[in-house]
Amino acid sequence: MPELSNSPFAPGPLNQLRAKRDRGRYDASEIFAILDCATVAHVGFVHDGRPMVIPMIFGRDEDRLYLHGVRKGRITSTAAGAPVCITVTLVDGIVVARSMFDASMNYRSVVIHGHAREIEDQAHRLHALRRISEQVLPGRWDEVREPFEKEVKGTSVLEVVIEAASAKVRSGPPMDDRVPGDERVWAGVIPMLTSFGQPVVDAEVPTDVALPPSVVALTKEAGLK
To answer: Which residues of the chain have pLDDT under 50?
Structure first.
């Protein structure tokens, strides 16, 4: 698990919340904890003068994020050296209020600003790819062969040092303005959960091959037998 930090990202022009400021979080430890719960980030950049947003898996290593893609992809050919905005959102529940205006969601979100830099050093590239793998399935990297040289050469790996960041968090019950008659209106929170199911083995895996430790750990964490 990458390190957490209590150092804050000072609010500034890029990351200062303008609405619902009481929901803002700037401590690195809170921001990193949200990132570590996610597997997909949406990466925004400008390509040929137009804004683009691409969902990507990522890996965090302390105060930086790693991204990867094919060398001729839009983000890997355009974003290197350019500013990017990266967002992550975890939805925890639907807040059902007594009026539609007060309906909401419980969520944890992060917005990150930085510049993408292509990694050229081979050892650094492998480290970044490992961090991306660990973000999705911890422990899997050590269970399989390392990437072939041609695979690594065909992959562009980007590093984004976090220059500015903020989190926004909403939790708890509805907060609504009530009028007479609202006491008979149902209100509350519908939790939204993401869970793993039972692993489905590939048909070409021999029947005597056991589940690897990485998959066993993930299924145990999900409460599966």
So the answer is: none
